[in-house]
Design brief:
alpha+beta; four-stranded mixed sheet; three-stranded antiparallel sheet
């Protein structure tokens, strides 16, 4: 029983970590980050923490405490904040041409300005930078801009795998602008999620060994040293990331693995899952795994109840039909084939659309240690498209359009779903 409770708690804590990654320090639901990363601007402590992280790759805990702002819903930078809009959409991009349509829409004026600067002069210093963390010109009006840089130490990008699209930011009006790779910004977001998991776990189990170790490190160290000591506790937590089909490209996934890998040498990398499969598993998990209650009951989810009732009905109908057939033919009834439910999951966000058909098999239950009622989830077919990336079907071009408030055009989505369902058939 204790082992069952421990496993159930583990699922709940992992769920809490994903939830808290998009909330402010007080857990306010309305303070979702929307994928943006915001740092304090013109703050000496913030500048030192970020500069140390960019230069050495360490000190993420100090960035979380001294630099990261809790509310980054607005993608526009202000006099108090530097906002990097949805940096995960830029992961792996080698050039401005590689930037997805979803990223272009999210970046808005930043992307347009970068394209205009490149068109004006391909040799302009604003778009051709060596990754030395500092730019020669620091008199730009915008606190955030995009640049194509070379990771191999070259003075200019060469159009090869060493090129990267990166952010150019001015954290301090008194300092030179610095380069921030999308992986570095995403790494901070991943560290925030890890820390939320640790905090949630310690809140539920304040007397565990890790909690006592953290309390001791806090008492023995202060400042950045204390942040580094605490980071050692959560820095290697392996995150699980749900990847939409339209974003599952090799360069993006490689960059995501680098961004979310643990902080210590040899740390375990992230666990990557198709987003549709992750959504299916999440909908099948017992309700107690989604809550913060101390209840140890495993109440089936609504989807699990619906599937269980459907399976029972189908099996009863098949058994009745087999019995009638056996009576007519005067033979022994044949065991009917097991009914395997087929689910069609639809996901529509401001970044893209995905429709996936998956078959469930190997029903399992009755064991307190089992969380998912099906042991097999097989993707039969999947159709997806990025925001603004039109598809050609029957000579007709369609897009998934999103207005300025992030609302999906329902008519266009319905049209796209009809096309996707035809493809799945």
């Amino acid at each position: 029983m204790e082992e069952a409770i421990r496993r159930q708690t583990g699922v709940r804590v992992r769920s809490v970590g994903g939830m808290w990654a998009n909330r402010d320090d007080n857990g306010a639901v309305g303070s979702r980050r929307g994928g943006n990363v915001a740092w304090k601007r013109d703050d000496d402590a913030s500048y030192r923490a970020v500069k140390r992280y960019l230069a050495k790759g360490t000190g993420r805990g100090a960035v979380l405490r001294r630099s990261l702002l809790p509310d980054a819903k607005d993608a526009r930078s202000t006099a108090e904040a530097i906002v990097l809009p949805r940096p995960h959409l830029l992961l792996g991009a080698r050039s401005l041409e590689d930037v997805s349509s979803a990223a272009r829409a999210a970046l808005g004026p930043l992307f347009a300005a970068a394209v205009a600067a490149t068109a004006d002069d391909d040799d302009d210093a604003a778009t051709s930078r060596v990754i030395d963390r500092e730019f020669r010109d620091d008199d730009q009006d915008s606190p955030v801009s995009l640049a194509v840089i070379a990771l191999d130490g070259g003075a200019t990008p060469k159009g090869d795998d060493f090129d990267r699209v990166a952010f150019r930011i001015k954290l301090s009006s008194k300092k030179k602008a610095v380069t921030v790779l999308p992986e570095e910004a995403v790494g901070i977001a991943a560290s925030l999620a890890r820390k939320r998991v640790m905090d949630a776990y310690f809140a539920e189990f304040p007397e565990c060994d890790l909690a006592e170790e953290r309390n001791k490190s806090r008492a023995d160290a202060a400042g950045d040293d204390g942040d580094d000591e605490e980071e050692e506790l959560y820095g290697d937590f392996p995150p699980a990331v749900a990847i939409p089909g339209w974003a599952a490209m090799d360069p993006s996934l490689e960059a995501l693995v680098d961004a979310t890998r643990g902080s210590s040498p040899g740390a375990c990398g992230p666990s990557l899952h198709p987003r549709s499969v992750a959504a299916c598993v999440g909908a099948l998990l017992p309700q107690s795994s989604h809550s913060n209650s101390n209840s140890n009951s495993n109440s089936p989810s609504k989807l699990t109840k619906l599937l269980a009732e459907t399976i029972r009905t189908k099996r009863a109908d098949a058994a009745k039909e087999a019995a009638l057939l056996a009576a007519r033919t005067k033979t022994d009834p044949v065991e009917p084939e097991p009914f395997l439910p087929l689910l069609v999951l639809v996901g529509a966000t401001t970044d893209g659309l995905e429709v996936t058909a998956m078959q469930l098999s190997k029903p399992q239950g009755g064991d307190e240690e089992v969380h998912c009622p099906f042991g097999g989830i097989s993707v039969v077919s999947s159709v997806c498209c990025c925001r603004g990336a039109g598809t050609m079907e029957g000579g007709k071009h369609t897009d998934v359009d999103v207005d300025i408030n992030g609302d999906v055009d329902v008519d266009v989505v319905e049209e796209k779903l009809e096309w996707a369902m035809d493809r799945l058939r």
